[in-house]
Amino acid sequence: MKVVHRVCLIDLHPADTRIDAVSAVVEETHVSRNPELMKSFIALTCLALSATTFAQTEGTGHDTLQTVAGSLVVSKAGSASGDGTTFSVSLNGKAFDQLDGSRYHYYLNQESADAKVGRMLIEDFIVVGFSDPPAVTFYDFRKGIPVVSQVSEKLDFDKLQWTQNSVFFESNGKWFVFEGKRLTEHKPPSSTSKTKAQ
Question: Is residue 114 domain-shared with residue 31, that is, in the same domain?
Answer without folding.
Answer: no
